[in-house]
Amino acid sequence: MEKENALKTALETNFASLVSDVKIARPRRLWATTSVANFKEVINWLNKEQGFTHLSTITGVDSGANFEFLYHIANGGLMLTLKVLVPSANPTAATVTDIFPGAEDYERELVDMFGATITGLPPGNRYPLPDGWPEGQYPLRKSWKPADLYPQEENKCQK
Amino acid sequence: MPKITIPLGPQHPALKEPGNFLLCLEGEEVQSATLRLGYNHRGVEKAMEDRTFIQDLYLVERVCGICSHAHTTCFSMAVEEIGGIEVPRRGQAIRVLVGEIERIHSHLLWLGVAGHEIGFDTLFMYSWRDRELSLDCLENITGNRVHYGINTIGGVRRDITAEQAQNVLKQMDVIEERTKYYIKLATEEPTVLARTKGVGMLPKEVALSRCAVGPLARASGIQKDVRKDDPYLLYSELDFKVITHDSCDVFGRLVVRVFELLESIKLVRQIIKSLPEGPVLAKAPRKIPAGEAVCRYEAPRGEDMHYVKANGTEKPERAKVRAPTMANFASVPYMLQGGWLADVPIVIAAIDPCFSCTDRATLARRDGSAQTLDWPALRSKGIEFYKARGVDFRKL
Description:
heterodimer; A: alpha/beta; Beta Polymerase, domain 2; 5-stranded mixed sheet; two-stranded parallel sheet; B: alpha+beta; Cytochrome-c3 Hydrogenase, chain B; 3-stranded antiparallel sheet; 16 helices; 13% strand; globular
């Protein structure tokens, strides 16, 4: 647990005002919360100074007033999930493709499934929804139900 | 020489799954490649929010038809972590056993596909014949060749008998002998070397920055294996090597996979030799307390990751699946650039892509409005589709 404790202390001292709720859930699993304004700074520091070179994925979670974008970043077996709180009224976040070029499709998924705006994301094909998908339909938002798009499906999706 | 753009896929690019690769060619040389994925998107993650944890287990099993055990194990481990459920050691051992036999069948399957892509169909026939042995083992233990349905929250659903264990050992002897033959073939056969050496180069730094996983990363000299880095189940007690290669090409990926077959056989023997006694299943509650967990699993194709958020009910608040192929697609355009058109299929196949995993699970239209397109209509639809994307076939 030495590595975990060291990282926790480093996060708390370097980003006292920016990062909150740093916790060690179990060996090799850390969680921390930050705001959308400062998260790039934290990710950059983790990547450049702490050896977190692997972004496993970005998970979007709809928790009502906020969307949570979870950046699962790993340094070997050590995995830190950085929870970035993004207001759901205006879900805009900066791209991390300048730090992790492999993040492009994960960010496109946030755009398609949550209606997020990712500033700085290079142009390219959408992912994963089809080209003809109607505007303003974001399937992973809690308010979205399959019946919104396919009224004939109502009552069939429930068991 | 003028540049031309040709679409490869979405129907069966290199293998029998849908994905679209728009290749810009100068002569036979690939200048750039653009990916379009999502043809297999089935909305699994949304569907999981509407189902109970047990129902979800059967849904995630169907995320992939090859590494189904990887997904169910990873999902159950995440749920067990949130619920504080301790899986009995015998249950863990059976999960490892099925996981490693699954790796053997998956790597042998890949070897066959790779052989087919380089025009070596004898290798395809041989390795798929031998793969049947591992599928027989799985059928014998779990009752199914694929979609084993052995995992459940809290452990596994079936115990294994001494006869079944003996049967697995017997098959492993045959698979080991065949694997040694494949190692010789992969490293000495001139046609294999000619088609794989220096093809689809992915330097270590690029593999690192594009977050490649599994055999793709290991063939670029990166020591990355979740079983070692972030051990789960009983892996911290087992003896095995992480196979790496520094040639950074398709040849390296081939070598890594065939040697991994030997490591998996070694793991299967260790597990059977020291199979712990006791129950295989801990009773799990239907309702999982509120909490969240991230779990990683080394699937045959690399790091599989599941995120689960529970809200105290019997259904998850959110479940996220990130299959290994999704992580590896970011490296594909780089590997294709500067290569030859004829090498495109093997380069794509060398990441052992699994499109269904990548796209996961939406909606089939059931309003009865079936539409049948005849050949001219289908053809003009295709032409219009590409025209809208700047590719004009009318000149051809």
